[in-house]
Amino acid sequence: xxxxxxxxxLLDENQTELKVFALKKLDNIVNEFWAEISEAIEKIPRLQVxxxxxxxxxxxxxxxxxxxxxxxxxxxxxxxxxxxxCIDHYTKLRRQEGAAVxxxxxxxxxxxxxxxxxxxxxxxxxxxxxxxxxxDMFQKAIxxxxxxxxxxxxxxxxxxxxxxxxxxQDEVLRALVKLYRELDxxxxxxxxxxxxxxxxAQSVADVLLRLLEGSGSTLMAYQIAFDLYESATxxxxxxxxxxxxxxxxxxxxxxxxxxxxxxxxxxxxxxETSSSAAPVKMETADxxxxxxxxxxxxxxxxxxxxxxxxHLQFLIRSNHTDLLVLKQTKDAVRNSVCHTATVIAxxxxxCGTTSDQFLRDNLEWLARATNWAKFTATASLGVIHKRRRxxxxxxxxxxxxxxxxKDASFERRKKPSGWADISRGNGLRVVNALLLSRLKRSWKRxxxxxxxxLGVGLAAMSTHRQDVYEQLKFTLYQDDAVAGEAxxxxxxxxxxxxxxxxxxxxxxxxxxxxxxSRVMLKKLPSAVPAVxxxxxxxxxxxxxxxxxxxxxxxxxAMHALAMAYxxxxxxxxxxxxxxxAVSDVNDDVRRAAVEALGFILFRTPEQCPxxxxxxxxxxxxxxRYGSAMALGISCAGTGNKEALSLLxxxxxxxxxxxxxxxxxxxxxxxxxxxxxxxxxxxxxxLESCVVSDKHDDVMAKLGAILAQGILDAxxxxxxxxxxxRTGHVNMAAVVGMLVFTQFWYWFPLAHFxxxxxxxxxxxxxxxxxxxxxxxxxxxxxxxxFAYPAPLEExxxxxxxxxxxxxxxxxxxxxxxxxxxxxxPEGMDLAESKPESKPEAKPRxxxxxxxxxxxxxVVKPQLKxxxxxxxxxxxxxxxxxxxxxxxxxxxxxxEAEELVEPVSAGGPTSENDxxxxxxxxxxFEYQDE
Length: 928
Prior knowledge:
Residues 761-899 form the 26S proteasome regulatory subunit RPN2 C-terminal domain. The chain is 54% helix and 4% strand. With 928 residues, the chain is mainly alpha-helical.
């Protein structure tokens, strides 16, 4: 029809049939003639006119009144919009406590769920169920799916990342635990991951003990223990061990309870080189007698001893550091700042590899370090020998050989921090006691206290020890700027993740209002413990700090906000940070606010470039620097192309410290991504150009040298990882990255980046916790994920022979005789043509690669891995996840070939004479 007036006139008829006919016709043409129909809206409130007028609330009201006549299956814009408004309104009512829900509204939502089930859109049903908090529909959508395991994995990922309300998240996770347990083959791995989020150590201990007592499930218990060490906090692991001791069913000969199979928390650790290869007694046929031995092995895994030893073996074995990069940088630098940067770059390149060859080969150059530069150089040894637990004292003493005995005061005072770097975050009591006693004895020497505070903070990180906290607080109250700076950082490290200690953490902030030292005040941000699972408990404190006049305390509030909401993607926190980034009058506060965006968004790195794209073009260089760091934090190790496109223009920024940040962040983004080889090569060439340019600024050179160390970190075998493989926030890595950003003020803090470095490896273990010789198939060409080619030294060009001058008279005479001008006079030379050999055609590159155990596997390569056909071993969990994988031996009766452990220390210099022998005991010489 051209007009709707004729149909509208039928509404004035008395016959009901005519009115129904008119309404149906108007319903079909309302999208085209809604303006004309709106003049008679009082006659036809049933139709979609309110929707076209923009009155969605009235349109929703009449849609609810239509009841079954409102068909949710019709594929129209009107139906989709009304359903969206209906779900939003229903969600709002469900989240309000005590709010009455209209039965008609709930009926429409139920029909929408039914539509999802009929169409097979179970993921959409899960999303709607989580939004509306309908646990009945949530469980129904998972159970009704064809692939229940995939739906459970999707649901757990959504629950852990997108659900903001903590109470409702706990309810969802407990429902997932129940569903995992009710599977035909219970998924204990993912069940325990949910229990970690629930902070339920007792249930985890029950699962582990049940697996140990079961037949053929011991390997699954070991696999879960490895995942627990990677994902859980030290406090959680300690509570799991305590619960296992209480539940251990073993008994001794007298029938008394025996839990000696589980090692105590402060037990002395084994050597790192033998931890992965030490033989362990095999399980016996009877489950009950084998439990103590199995519990002892399980406790060893939970303590981290096995994981640390395996990672150390992998890094030593796979070290591909290019020393020529460091040599060229060393030859190019000519000032103390670049000297310190080169030492830091060397420590990052060799992080965890135990190889100090570069330092031993350049002792004279290293001896140029004085005062605080020597302080930094000694601490770098702790990064090189990271997690090498024994003998940590001998590694600290090695610094005296490398740096010399002359002017060793700063070297001695940095030893505590170097020791802590070796055992950082593991809470070893022998290290803690040694460092704490050194800190107490040296209260008169501020340099010793500075290194001691950093060392204690690292060694006791996240242990919540009150004695350590009180000692650090005592150091802070001495009003010593140098020692107080380190004490502020160490207090935050010790109380990291504490919920109970939040009121105590306010003490430094109250004390900061009377501080006279600006140096100490600016480090108090780290004294606020991060509470990632309960951010609201310190939100009031943060909001109060944002209102103070002192810009240093406002900057501390930005860091506290970043730690409280790290990885959450919380919209409220993002809005608050963006407001401060564009409104605060202090450049340092604005820079810290932009950097904090990276910490909040690192779980969804694809969102960060869009958030900071405008800030990266700000007129304020501090904001541009902060946006570069935010991109590096959120997109670390991802190779995000959008982030790299924003960073590349910053390498030519007119402000030198912006170039510095861009160079460092580009190195973090390009780590081990052979897929972007050209971009990596261009970045490496840019770094080399900046370092070798004599006229470039020192700040830009500092960033380029640090970028070289980050690009090849850990022998080109590690990446910056703020999330574990299972999706949990790695708080040690997050804190390490936060403190690393403070190298802006204090160069030694760059060593904290080593906390965020995680090995990119695949390690396969047997039931004896030993590495068998096996191969894993990678479905990519070997060159796709190969190590970058090492640099080649430039060879001196040979001098070319000078052509003999020929006189014009001689040339004329030769031409008359028909002789060649180039041949010597009086000699007839026979030209000898070299035999041409056919060039060998290069062999075509295979489409796959066999990786030996342990293997370097980068993140994009994981999805291409599979066990070869006919393999003797069967993995307990999917190897595409990476990390440490337990293997079941299908041919246990045959002898197996194991990977031999390698010795720590790496290659040594030719001139290395080893450790100096001890002097003889005092004696008296008697002349007879």
